[in-house]
UniProtKB/TrEMBL annotation:
Descriptive protein name: DUF4194 domain-containing protein
Top-level division of the source organism's lineage: Bacteria
Keywords, in A-Z order: Plasmid
Organism: Acinetobacter indicus
Length: 217
């Protein structure tokens, strides 16, 4: 039987709150128990009553994969456009490595699609695809520059990139070998934030140094 958050163990409730207010995401692939609790509308409502005292609210991404916290006035603040413009400028260096990764991984996926929450990444398959594609090798070199790494061996380069994505919480290692990864719900949040920033910024592509990367989002 589905139960609401105030009836669950206190540890789970506290875990959900702490996870959200520290900027983390919750999805059924990486945080199954938390996601199952939040799938209950009553539990989500009760959680939001609690978060409201901190000026926050838990929302679900439009693709349904992920829960994350936003400020209550995030969509209505009169200075939101200025805030978004400032955020876009401040986050440019952080966002670009993620965009580069998406461009790279798109070339390894069937159907030329982007990464979504729950996707599995195999190091051996990724290495094989990279070894057999000069385009992916070039994209990998560009990505290495973006994350400030200088390895030249393909295996080391891929390891550096995957470790970076794990550190940024876009990927989670699975299994015992350390060679397989799972895409987290942070991808869903990334797409929504990127879409929102583009919709609310009058981006001048002539002034942007890398317009094709921004338009890719």
């Amino acid at each position: 039987m589905t139960i609401s958050i105030d009836q669950t163990e206190l540890g789970l409730f506290n875990g959900i709150v702490n996870h959200l207010i520290t900027g983390n995401t919750i999805d059924s692939f990486t945080n199954k128990a938390m996601a199952e609790a939040l799938n209950n509308p009553l539990a989500l409502e009760e959680l939001n009553q609690y978060l409201a005292f901190m000026g926050k609210k838990c929302v679900r991404t439009s693709d349904g994969y992920c829960f994350y916290a936003v400020h209550l006035d995030a969509r209505t603040h009169k200075d939101r456009k200025a805030q978004v413009e400032k955020q876009f400028a401040e986050n440019y260096n952080r966002v670009m490595p993620i965009v580069e990764w998406l461009r790279l991984i798109r070339n390894t996926h069937s159907g030329n699609r982007v990464m979504v929450c729950g996707d599995e990444i195999s190091f051996s398959k990724l290495l094989y695809e990279t070894e057999n594609s000069t385009l992916i090798q070039k994209q990998l070199k560009d990505l290495m520059f973006k994350i400030g790494k200088s390895s030249t061996d393909l295996k080391d380069m891929l390891n550096d990139v995957l470790k970076y994505l794990v550190a940024q919480e876009y990927l989670m290692p699975t299994g015992n070998t350390g060679l397989n990864y799972l895409a987290t719900g942070k991808w869903s949040v990334f797409y929504e934030e990127a879409e929102y920033m583009l919709e609310h910024n009058n981006i001048n592509y002539e002034e942007n140094p890398e317009p094709e990367q921004v338009s890719f989002l």
